[in-house]
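User: Earlier you gave me the apo prediction for this protein. Now I'd like the version with 2-acetamido-2-deoxy-beta-D-glucopyranose bound, so I can compare the two side by side. Same sequence as before, with the ligand SMILES added.
Assistant: Got it. Here's the input I'm using:
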Amino acid sequence: MAHFSLSLCIFFTVLSLTSSFTITTPSHTTILNISSSLHQARQILSFKPQQAFQQTLTQKQTPTSRSSSFFSLQLHTRETLFNAQHPDYKTLVLSRLARDSARVNSLETKLQLALNSVKRSELYPTQTEIRPEDLSTPVSSGTSQGSGEYFSRVGVGQPAKPFFMVLDTGSDVNWLQCKPCSDCYQQTDPVFDPTSSSSYYPLTCDAQQCQDLEMSACRNGRCLYQVAYGDGSFTVGEYVTETVSFGGSGSVNRVAMGCGHDNEGLFIGAAGLLGLGGGPLSLTSQIKAASFSYCLVDRDSGKSSTLEFNSPRPGDSVTAPLLKNQKVNTFYYVELTGFSVGGDIVSIPPETFAVDQSGVGGVIVDSGTAITRLRTQAYNAVRDAFKRMTQNLRPADGVALFDTCYDLSSLQSVRVPTVSFHFAGDKTWALPAKNYLIPVDSAGTYCFAFAPTTSSLSIIGNVQQQGTRVSFDLANSVVGFSPNKC
Ligand SMILES: *[C@@H]1O[C@H](CO)[C@@H](O)[C@H](O)[C@H]1NC(C)=O
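And here is the structure of the complex with 2-acetamido-2-deoxy-beta-D-glucopyranose:
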């Protein structure tokens, strides 16, 4: 407590000396609870994944009284399912950050391919030029790390078999590993066997779903698919329809998905992926969801939350217009107008976050990216504002992609300037301190959890979304952020 009062006192002194405005109202600052976040960081290292695994296998879904199109799935963090037993918290953080860089590269590659059709046809032949044998050629070697940060258990087939699937708002094509495997990575569930399902239907090459694929080929009249994630990971196999079951909340027949016989790269642990993007082949589009929402629990909390389809948006949500990029329909763009730090609007040219006619620029909300990426100029402005207002804190060396870190090891808690996103329509989403000051070791080093990108695409990552229910109201083109609705 003594530390706390002292730092508070220094903070306001520094603030009034260095800022042209004197901000002392409490909403302009927020408290970071250091003892509680370090406690979580230590706990997650010894978390026993098997516990969550067992729970989710036996979990009873409560029947819902809402309309039959309402579906709900439990949402789990990577650490609670496939904890890789890291020797210390810093190793865990560094592996998360390496995974995150691969993720961002993959989104940027996807965007580049969509924006630059010349480049795309060089990298991947167009649909008619692909031969079946081309589809099984690795684009490049996948990395050995598991990817995907949030997972749900869904049933596939008839009778339904349960699988852990990565949930991904940054892609559309659903797929899972399938027998017979020419190459399957390690997964926790037995690999799906089409011969044991009565609802497995291969799609023909002239099916609309097959036509909608970015990369497909035809063999004996049957549709083959390939998805390459731009980071070396890929999946290749037969494109089929199957029944997908959402725990006890219902099932949907004839969902198009890939039955992957050759799968490599980033998805170790999960059986496959559910695409929640905005394109026609995503799960969201196929079940014609008017909305979906998820809540991403703090990744160190060991807790789970839910992914819901067609549930109402919480009344207290901060809303942002949901925008479309004409060149790529997968990503969810929002109309971000700027930032404030400690109550001061950060000076950033308004066009920095706009998506232009050619599809360049813009800001997407992504479930799979951890650290928010901002165009360098915007990042620098936000970071400089934050640094200016935290001169009371002891600086520490940068870690990985973080250039602004602090040694908070001697403190129990500390008051820091509030960082807020501003959206069109004068909406302000104020983040809790733990969503932008994150521990990078268990000793008390914290870093400012934003990063610059030289790409034109800015990304709102899941560290910033933690503890917030994010609702994608597709029918009304609005994204809602509701704090403390997990
Ligand atoms: C920090 O969190 C701990 C445990 O969650 C709690 O007991 C304590 O009161 C919190 N401190 C502050 C300053 O909020």
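For your comparison, keep in mind: The longest strand covers residues 251-264.
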